[in-house]
Design goal:
The chain is built from seven helices and ten strands. By secondary structure, it is an alpha/beta fold. Strand 4 and strand 5 form a beta hairpin.
Length: 225
Amino acid sequence: MLSLQHISKYYQVGGNKNYVINDISIDVEQGEFVSIMGPSGSGKSTLLNIIGMLDEPSDGFHYFVDQPVHQLKEKQRSALYKQYIGFVFQAYHLIDELTVAENIETPLIYQDVKGAERKAMVADMLDRFQIVGKKDLFPAQLSGGQQQLVGIARALIAKPKLILADEPTGNLNSKQGEEIMELFRKLNKEDGVTIIQVTHSEKNAEYGSRIINLLDGRVESIKNL
């Protein structure tokens, strides 16, 4: 499904290259659940953003569903992203001017899902995450944990083939966090959704089938579970 070959990301500082990630090669098969770990500053979020086509590498080759992402124009990358990927951000990235229900609905609008079907799918998500009572509120009226749940609901609504999650339970209490990880496990095992998560939590990492440890922008170790 995904192949990264010799991917690097650096910034020119004076005459020097300041590497954020350095010569990373990873393959992810469809249906895998991969956890990426490492200390702060090891390049985890940058790597996830490159996988999700939100950032471009400085060097290397990026293939996704047999498409050479490194050769695609921005519009083509955007179309691939919308068709296949759901992103759960650590910082939510909810749209302040939209209600909870409207935020969750957004990916379906991009996919040209009909209005009545959109409403039914949003209602199902609100119910699944037990946030029906919050549907008409705006993000600023929600707690951090509630905003995270809305962000996860939005990522899942279009039934993506690949979920990218950046610290998905970072702002949730332990019970909510466990429920989200169990939901991810279910999506992975029963629906065959491929999941790549960045996490600091050993417990969350072990939901995956493989843990990739980064250190100073490089792959330090890969552990199969």
